[in-house]
Amino acid sequence: MSTCKIKICGLTRIEDVQAAAQLGADALGFVFYPPSPRHLAIPQAAKLVSALPPFMTSVGLFVDAEPAVVRSVLQTVPLDLLQFHGDESPDYCQQFDRPYLKAVRVRPGLDLLAYAKAHRDARGLLLDAYVEGQPGGTGHQFDWQLIPKGLPLPVVLSGGLTPDNVADAVTQVKPWAVDVSSGVESAKGIKDAARIAAFINGVRNANV
Ligand SMILES: O=C(O)c1ccccc1N[C@@H]1O[C@H](COP(=O)(O)O)[C@@H](O)[C@H]1O
């Protein structure tokens, strides 16, 4: 049985927060990126985060946001961890004095070791698929063979994970955690409890 951690991202409804918590997710992600169909206004996000039970991590996702935007979210929404999903520099990421994940979109030719070393103050490196013009949440998978051994940060694997492929992903990559959005939805921003349950089962049944 795998103890890989599980983050479900892009929640927009209280019933999805409650279902993900009851089904055993470790962390929930809330999107603060206006072009995303999963984007939340601050009051809505505050309501969802306040419904989290104890010991569950709330994660705020930003894409190249103005620092003032991140600060205004942090004033009202009690986020445990930030997820920077754009081209944010290490200096940018550190300015909020909050633990963070740095996301990177993996493609051939990218030196992931150098990228991880540059972002060594991150709590983890989130690996997503590269899709031209789209920062994430695409439902696309990338070639897991592109992940080098010996990355100096815990790996959070994402990008096109589903209930059908997540056991293989955990078995092959052995990440610290997995992150999913599209793969557990019935429509953008609408989570499907049966798919979340199947996803969590897939992680737990991985052969590691
Ligand atoms: O979820 C979004 O809308 C989103 C928008 C902009 C950047 C990232 C976004 N989501 C993150 O993308 C990855 C992969 O998602 P998927 O499972 O392939 O749909 C995941 O880390 C989400 O947190």
UniProtKB/TrEMBL annotation:
Looking at the record, the residues that make up the N-(5'phosphoribosyl) anthranilate isomerase (PRAI) domain are: 6-201
Gene Ontology molecular function, alphabetical: phosphoribosylanthranilate isomerase activity
Q: What domain of life does the native source organism fall in?
A: Bacteria
Isomerase listed as a keyword: yes
Q: Which GO terms describe its biological process?
A: L-tryptophan biosynthetic process
Reaction equations catalysed:
N-(5-phospho-beta-D-ribosyl)anthranilate = 1-(2-carboxyphenylamino)-1-deoxy-D-ribulose 5-phosphate
Q: Which InterPro entries match?
A: Aldolase_TIM, PRAI_dom, RibuloseP-bd_barrel, TrpF_fam
Q: What EC number(s) does the entry state?
A: 5.3.1.24
Keywords carried by this UniProt record: Amino-acid biosynthesis, Aromatic amino acid biosynthesis, Isomerase, Tryptophan biosynthesis
Concerning Pfam families, the annotation shows: PRAI
Pathway participation: Amino-acid biosynthesis; L-tryptophan biosynthesis; L-tryptophan from chorismate: step 3/5
Family indicated by similarity: Belongs to the TrpF family.
**Per its record, how is this protein called by name?**
N-(5'-phosphoribosyl)anthranilate isomerase
Organism field:
Chitinivorax tropicus
Gene for this chain: trpF
